[in-house]
């Protein structure tokens, strides 16, 4: 179940409408005992809330179990292999053809961490507050907002690697820049030293200001490798599914620590 801006805004509205908490008057000699009892109660309440949310999201995931099979079928047909590890945010799509290896790195959490999602949630919170003063009229929410997902595409060849920075926006792969690397290792190495070296490489002008013929050729280059609108839709759908899956695990890990 994707945690839409409706749920975010509703929770924010509930918190905002709560009045100030009046501090309890506690006798000094009873302070330590009451503090312990209060902490235990708060722990139990938090764990119960986490478990309840985990159950709701787990049931939603089970209803979408067929999506995992559809994802695998799509990737197989497109020639991609999915590389992922439970608990880690970044995932990778790999496609090999001859002496070329294409890698696409992205983070599923972009579907909830983007500024557009947070801005929509804040805006809907304000609308919720306004609706409360409009004779009880019911306010309709929409979760149709753009969620850009950043892509780091690396095309590895024997002479080096081409880095392509892009975003998934709706059903489009929008290229932002092209960066030539002297080696594939430099392009994908995650060490601080490699990151420093990458920053020193001239990245060229923004893709949008390149000659239209170059832009068109780059798009054809990607589409010939199945980096197209279908893949953009897959990445968006998979990111939502994967983020929800990790969210369920995240809830359970926190509850396990506190129990």
Task: Give a written overview of the molecule.
It comes from Wickerhamiella sorbophila. There is one protein chain. The protein is elongated. α1 (5-17) crosses α5 and α2 (31-63) packs antiparallel against α9. The chain has 259 residues and is α+β, with helices and mostly antiparallel strands. The protein has a six-stranded antiparallel beta sheet. It has helices at residues 5-17, 31-63, 65-78, 110-113, 115-131, 184-188, 192-199, 212-223, 229-258; strands spanning 81-83, 91-97, 100-106, 149-157, 160-169, 172-181.
Helix/strand/pairing class, anyone? alpha+beta
For the largest beta-sheet, the strand count, sense and barrel status come to:
6 strands, antiparallel
Mean pLDDT: 80
General form: elongated
Instruction: Look at the structure and give the CATH class.
Output: Alpha Beta
Q: Would you identify the regions where 5 or more consecutive residues have pLDDT less than 50?
A: 1-28, 116-121, 123-132, 134-145
Helix content: 40-55%
* Superfamily (CATH H level) name: Mitochondrial glycoprotein
Task: Sketch the topology as an H/E string, one letter per element.
Answer: HHHEEEHHEEEHHHH
Say how many strands there are.
Answer: 6
As laid out across the biggest beta sheet, the strand order is 1-2-3-4-5-6
Percent of residues in beta strands? 15-25%
Tally of helical runs: 9
What is the CATH architecture annotation? Answer: Roll
The termini sit apart by: 25 Å
CATH topology: Mitochondrial Matrix Protein, Chain A
**What is the domain total for the residues?**
1
Protein name: Mitochondrial acidic protein MAM33
GO cellular component, one term: mitochondrial matrix
GO biological process, one term: cytosolic ribosome assembly
Organism: Wickerhamiella sorbophila
